């Protein structure tokens, strides 16, 4: 496919001199289709996404973001916003329009005395961990260090500290936002509180967040790692995991996965992370380690950033990915049997079925307290198809869809939008649940023309 130039929503090309004048006013830079680094700028880790923006803008600060939004409005451009570029659906890219790529805005400033962290919108989880760890602190984020903090937070954000400290969005104290009109806003519980509510789980519908202020928690060393069993033990391991986690202390987050080991053996793994006192953690995690006959037990004390990056190699740049996800209220025996059955049908050694248990601090927050409504569904089930050969796209996509369909009888009817490659309007509405109508009203207030449309899009209320 030949590259395309910058065009507006009607397909009309934008004049080169207008682009030149815009570029000249930026502290950052623009990347055009003819530039040597254009192909690298338009790629993300998921190789199934192949889009050709008309212009990629890399701001150095909020003023550049305002200039980009203003330019896009003047010329009626389609706009995508790229933070870390790790969204599996590729929402940080578009064809023909303008990409606001925040990758030059990765600053992290820690105030250890107040246990707060200010993070620019282009930072990754690894950027945050690197700075907070120096002070013995951590922000509850995700599980892959290359993930962008912005998309993760705006969609909720789930990781190794979720049971003790909640979702990432629960730990935001303030946002710096450029809205659809190009206005800069400071958003907090006392400034634009309606928007503060919406940004905590409402996705990218309301503007470009140029910085976040987070509450951090005293976490430096955790007890974590993998406990791996043979796949033929999957049913027993998942049943034990389910029963064990019902009474596990909140300091323990543990996920399970049906996967293939690096040497090609189908397996089931439990991945615990204990964030409290180490001696207490050894006692708390011991039953998980002692169950059955593990092929491997790699649980050990480790710096929290090591835990945060442990799964990075499972999501390599350049692989092809298609994900489906659903919440279930209870992981009963029939649900487990269904999961194991579909895991045994995986034909790519890179694919996995993931079981994540969230009950704890996250579920103690009311569904209406933030835009993230899925508080009471304890388990999220993810079907993560991953492969390398484009000729196998249909095969692996069909596997994920069939597994997801099979889980619908057990579903709570809710979805974790950050874990989905595609969503219908009905799925988006279900994901926002009882908060959807309020979000639609706020969309009408802050973005009545749906300027920010490349997201899990909320239609404006009439």
Q: Tell me the name of the CATH class of the largest domain.
A: Alpha Beta
How many domains comprise the coordinates? 3
Query: How many individual β-strands?
Result: 20
Low-pLDDT segments, ≥5 res: none
| Average pLDDT over all residues | 96
- What proportion of the residues form beta strands (DSSP E)? 15-25%
CATH domain topology of the largest domain: Vanillyl-alcohol Oxidase, Chain A, domain 3
Overview of the molecule:
The protein has 462 residues and is of the alpha+beta class. It folds into 3 domains: 16-101, Uridine Diphospho-n-acetylenolpyruvylglucosamine Reductase, domain 2 (2-Layer Sandwich); 108-219, Uridine Diphospho-n-acetylenolpyruvylglucosamine Reductase, domain 3; 221-425, Vanillyl-alcohol Oxidase, Chain A, domain 3, CATH 3.40.462. It has 14 helices and 20 strands. The chain has helices at residues 16-24, 38-41, 62-74, 125-133, 149-154, 162-165, 193-199, 234-245, 278-290, 304-309, 333-343, 393-407, 425-432, 436-446; strands spanning 29-31, 55-58, 79-82, 98-101, 108-111, 116-120, 137-138, 172-178, 184-188, 208-215, 217-218, 221-224, 227-230, 252-260, 266-274, 296-297, 300-303, 320-328, 352-357, 379-387. The strands form 4 sheets. Strands 12, 13, 14, 15, 16, 17, 18, 19 and 20 form a 9-stranded antiparallel β-sheet that branches. Helix 8 (234-245) crosses helix 11 and helix 11 runs antiparallel to helix 12 (393-407). The radius of gyration is 22 Å and the shape is globular. The model has no long low-confidence stretch (mean pLDDT 96).
